Please model this.
Amino acid sequence: SAMLSGKSISNSGYGLGEFLQLCADTGSDPWLQIPSSTTPEQMRELVEYLTGTGSDAWSVARIASGQSDPWTQVFGKIHIELASASTTASVVSERMAPAVYAEQVNADYSAARQTTGFDGSKFDLILGGTGASSDWITAVLHQSREQDSVSVAADLPLQTANASPTETYGSLLAEPEVMDSTGGSVSREIT
Model:
């Protein structure tokens, strides 16, 4: 939460510029997870904001906010992950069908690659994968072609009501290791 006139404001957010500045201040390359509803036009605008030199409205806005150098000159690599599920505060996340997600990835990341100023060595365009089932990401990988890498999220549900600490946290330590280690379910499917 943020402080304003001595009062706490819950759920106050910060913008992309502030997040990128925080990453720069801490010496960290940013990992941006963008919504699954991002359009190719919005992806182009994001790349313009990150790479432009003032010849487009988005880099003009970045420069006006105090960041004159393109963010691609500040960071070694900018990681962008297209979320594979739709989530709201009141609705449980629903993963997109593999073919629909692959189509979205191909459209959005193709638009990114075609944007003036895009440099593939400065970006890591990521599929939002899951560690709970390798079937879903395998189906996506058969149809997607524009990504650079795949993230693997554990997707482990926590059943904490009346659960012991071992039941609650044990799988957090063991299950991801099983999934992504050599011979694990994810490595068997995507290698």
